[in-house]
Each structure stands twice: as structure tokens, then as C-alpha cells.
Amino acid sequence: MEASIFSFALSFLLLNSFALSLYSITTDKHALISFKKSITSDPYAILSTNWSQDTSICNWIGVLCGLKHRRVTALSLSGYDLAGTVAPHLGNLTFLRYLDISSNNFNGFLPFELSKLRRLKVMNVGVNSFTGEIPTWLGSLPQLEELHMYTNKLSGSIPHAIFNISSLRDIRIRNNSLTGWLPNDMCNNIPNVEILSLALNQLEGQIPTNIWKCTQLETLELAFNNFSGNIPPEIGRLSYLKYLYLAYSSFQGGIPAELGKLSRLEMLSIDSASL
Prior knowledge:
Layout: H1 2-37, E1 39-41, H2 46-50, E2 63-65, E3 72-76, E4 83-84, E5 98-100, E6 105-108, E7 122-124, E8 129-133, E9 146-148, E10 153-156, E11 170-172, E12 177-178, E13 195-197, E14 204-205, E15 219-221, E16 226-230, E17 243-245, E18 250-252, E19 267-269
Parallel strand pairs: 3-5, 4-6, 5-7, 6-8, 7-9, 8-10, 9-11, 10-12, 11-13, 13-15, 14-16, 15-17, 16-18, 17-19
Antiparallel strand pairs: 1-4, 2-3
């Protein structure tokens, strides 16, 4: 009797496990099919010829699945000249860790549903035509390490939520139409950031004096903006800094002597900075 009960329970668990696995794969497949339907131009026929419903999504070009759960963990479709919008269904790829749709022709807004990608570590949407403001929901991605949104048509200010993601190491939002000031406490919660690239925007105000709290910074790109005030001497405390770009802004005063403490500095660009 006990053996029968045990056997039944085991069968029930295995059946549930299989059903859950099947549901997960089905969910990911539906998400990718919805993404494919939102593509209006596929000049190299990457998706139209390869993303067949008759084959496993784990064999589709640009798709990588995890070995354990067989869920989609990476979507890499850079440089295929794809055009269209990003389907909100992409947020159902809840095991996704790597998303790269850079160097395409995507437009519109990044949908709020992407905030469900809680495992995401890398988001690269650079070199597209995304518009609107940088979404505040990015701050709800607790494991994000790299955020690449460069060369788009983004506007508005940089949301404070970006600077609360303590796992961030690489922030590249250069070459957009961003405005506003950088928050004074910008570096309080991103101590691990190594690259901060905000050049070629319309940012204004002063460089926050707490910049020294980004202690791991190796690259600081703030050139071609409307920054004013003095260059903060606190930059001289960034002992790992190798590349410093401050050119083409409206700074006042002179070059802080503290910059001479940057023993690892390889590139210093401050031309046409109104010093």
C-alpha cells in the first residue's frame, strides 16, 4: 500500500515537473514568435528563414538556452539591420541574462514589460532609433552589470534609478539628446562602475563632487555637453582612471592640480572646454 502511494506521488511530481518544463519552453517560444512578428524589415532573412516553428528555439540563430532548465538565457541579434519595435512579450523570457539587439533599426519605446527580466546582466540596445526618455523601470533590474543605450534618440534626463543599481560596471548612454543635471549623489550606490560614458548629449550643471565615490572608474566620458562650473578636484581621487574626456563644455577656472595624482591616466581630453 505504502509502495503504491509512493509510486503515485513520484509519478505526480515527475508529471508536474515535465508540464512545468514544457510550459516554460512554450512561454519562451511564444515570446520569441511575438518578437519576430514585431519585425517589419529583415533584409538578410535571418529570422524569416531560421526561426522556424518546426525546430527547437534553442537552435534558432541568436538564441542560447541554458543546459539545466532549457530556458532562453541569451538573445544576440546585433548588426542584422532588423527594423521594427520591441514586442512587450520579450519580458516573458524570465531566464534571460544577455540581451543584445544593437546596430539595428529598432524604434519606438522600450516596453515596461522588460522590467520582468530580473536575471538580466547585459542590455545592449545601442545604435538604433529608440525614442522617449530612459525608462525608470531599469532600476528594477537588480543584477544588471552592463547598460548600453548609446547612439539612439533618447531625450529627457537620466533617471535617478539608474544610479541605484549597485551591480552596474558599464554605463554607455553617449550620443543621444539627454538633458538635465547629473544627481549630486550619483556615485553613492554604484561603487563598482568602471565605464561611465555620457558624452555627446546636452547635459548641464556641474559634475557631482561625489564622483570620487565611483572608486573603480577607468573611463569617464563627459565631453560634448553643456557642463559648467569648475572641474571638481575630487576627480584626482579616482586612482584607477585611465581615460578622461571633458572636452567641449563650458567649465570655469583652471585645470585642478589634483589631476596630477592620476598615475594611471593614459588619455586626457579637455580641449575647447572654456578653461
